[in-house]
Amino acid sequence: MMALPRDYWQGVRDGMPFILVIVPFGAVFGVVATEAGLNLAQVMGFTVLVIAGAAQFVAVQMMVDNAPVLIVLAASLAVNLRMAMYSASLAPHLGRISWWKRGMVSYFMVDQAYAASILKYENTPEMRAGQKLAYYMGIVTPICPLWYLSTWAGAVLGTAVPAGLPIDFAVPITFLALIIPMLRTAAHVVAALVSIIGVLVFAFVPFNLGLLIAALLAMMAGAEVERRMTAKRAA
Amino acid sequence: MSFTTAQIWTIIIGLGLGSYLLRLSFLGIIGNRDLPEWVLRHLRYTAVAGMPGMITPLILFPQATGGSLDAVRLGAAFATIAISLWTRNATLTIFGGAAVLFALHFALG
Question: How distant is the alpha carbon of residue B94 from its chain centre?
Answer without folding.
Answer: 14
